[in-house]
Write a structure and sequence with these properties.
The protein has one domain: Metal Binding Protein, Guanine Nucleotide Exchange Factor, Chain A (Beta Complex), CATH 2.170.150.70. Helix content is 9%, strand content 29%. It has two helices and eight strands, in the order E-E-E-H-E-E-E-E-H-E. Strands 6-7-4-3-8 form a five-stranded mixed beta sheet, with no helix packed on it. The radius of gyration is 14 Å and the shape is globular. The mean pLDDT is 89.
């Protein structure tokens, strides 16, 4: 696989975007309480390769402990599309995290072929794979 441009949106199409993503670099699933409750499966994108097209004003702005990072969902249909993660002590470079479910033109076979990295956020051991991942 190589970098490919995908189009994405929420369910009601108020939020749309384009993203240059290389699925061969892998996708991510985490067991922290936030990702677990959202069933969040993500892929990273460089900020330069991410282009919001419409509806940024419809994206909720849930801020974590880091004021430079945000994530959210469409205020109308509730779909999680993308969020921004700032550079920090634990994160060497800023990136955009995209819900793979919001990528409209992602072929399921491409997703199935992409590697998955698991993170143990529940135990604040992000560099480790959780003991159990079948539910993620």
């Amino acid at each position: 696989m190589a970098t490919k441009t995908y189009r994405g949106s929420c369910h009601c199409k108020r939020i749309t975007f384009e993203a240059d993503v290389d699925l061969s670099k892998g996708t991510g699933k985490c067991n922290c309480t936030s990702c677990w409750k959202k069933r969040f499966w993500s892929v990273r994108c460089d900020p330069q390769g991410f282009r919001p097209l419409t509806g940024a004003e419809h994206l909720s702005n849930y801020k974590h402990d880091d004021p430079m990072s945000h994530s959210g969902f469409c205020k109308h249909c509730g779909v999680i599309t993308y969020g921004r993660v700032a550079k920090s002590d634990w994160n060497p470079a800023e990136y955009v995290t995209i819900s793979v479910a919001s990528l409209d033109d992602l072929d399921p076979a491409e997703l199935a072929a992409a590697p998955v990295q698991y993170y143990d956020g529940r135990n604040d051991a992000w560099q480790n794979k959780p003991a159990e991942v079948r539910h993620l």
